[in-house]
Amino acid sequence: MFEQIERVPGDAILGLIEAFNKDPNPQKVDLGVGVYRDAQGVTPIMRAVKKAEALLLKNETTKSYIGSHGDPRYAKVVLPLVLGAESPVLAADRASATQSPGGTGALRLAADFVKTNLPGKGIWVSDPTWPNHLGIFQAAGIELHKYPYVDADNRLDFDGMLSALKQIPHGDVVVLHACCHNPSGFDLSREQWQQVLETVRERDLLPLVDFAYQGFGDGLDEDAYGARLMAENLDEVLITSSCSKNFGIYRERTGCLIAIAKNHEQMQNVRSQLAIVARENYSNPPAHGGSIVYEILESAELAAVWRDELTEMRNRINGLRREFVDALAPYGLDGQFAHVAEQRGMFSYTGLKPEHVDRLRDEYGIYLVRSGRANVAGLASENLPYVAKAIAAVVK
Ligand code: PLP
Ligand code: TYF
């Protein structure tokens, strides 16, 4: 039977890891896959995480199942992290968190929930978006549509976005990146979020806010502005939260789907459906990452260590954005790349074209996604002059 099965290409972003590792160039620079790197190019285990794991090793008493919604202690700490400790939504007890294998698992829960419980609803994603959005929603059998997000001049196309949102059929689902838009790095201003909220309300849309980079843009609360605006002003909102990046626990697969309903009763109904979706996909989520997050956030001391480390990561990335533009100044390219300092999060749509990306890889061992997306965290003071020189050579 298997003789008829065709081979398909692998994930283009993850494929860059292998290509980079194979490259013998001693000066090679990895600006591909979206994992944080420190100044030494390492994706470290955070100190707070190591301490939490030591506590877990000592105190953990069972490896039994944690249930389809995951560990209630994780839900208890992640809800205020995402929605804010003083959230009126939490006070009204109309938000539920279902722990999932990463933010990706939460997206799939949301997709299956929509497919089964809101039949016939289409889903709208930004163009461009994280490629897995397309795969996940299509795999769930939902009709997928795109709204404009970045224009031909590589700038946020907010007018295009808003006028597209105003045309979406009533009741459809709209995916919004909470912050640190992947792949572009272009985020909405507070005024723009307000306009999106009004449109979502007018069209009676269901926002699915994908929140994979909380703390990587401007701060834990600052980055939550859009998600909280939706949560506090609408009856129904879905939020997919990931702890992969902000706790650096990528491989522990830690995230959740937050479902907000009009009232506690309806939230419990939705929650009961989400338990089925989780059960039919993987039964129970993995526990370890959620336990780490709980140990950290529940301890004032560990939480303070974690916040400092996250601040350090965010400041490093935002500092590199400015250093990158400065490094291009001697080539007269600081104007052309000025937007890189304004973008937020791990990623930047640099504006480099696929042919530039190919030359950077082949001639300089510098790896980016072909769309021109760079992982800014892969830059370092040591490689910036080399990267700037290479970019100047390929764009001229
Ligand atoms: N959503 C976006 C936009 C992402 O970039 C990621 C990152 O990988 C995720 C969701 C999910 O991440 P994970 O499943 O690793 O938590
Ligand atoms: O966009 C990125 O680079 C990250 C990591 O299939 C990632 O979100 C990339 C591809 C993938 C899973 C995670």
TrEMBL record:
Name any one GO molecular function.
transaminase activity
Q: What keyword terms does UniProt attach to this protein?
A: Aminotransferase, Pyridoxal phosphate, Transferase
Q: Which Gene3D superfamilies match?
A: Aspartate Aminotransferase, domain 1 (3.90.1150.10), Type I PLP-dependent aspartate aminotransferase-like (Major domain) (3.40.640.10)
Q: Does the keyword Transferase apply?
A: yes
Keyword Chaperone listed? The answer is no
Q: Please give the cofactor(s) recorded in the UniProt entry for this protein.
A: pyridoxal 5'-phosphate
The UniProt entry's sequence similarity note says: Belongs to the class-I pyridoxal-phosphate-dependent aminotransferase family.
The protein in question is named Aspartate/tyrosine/aromatic aminotransferase
User: Organism source for this protein?
Assistant: Modicisalibacter zincidurans
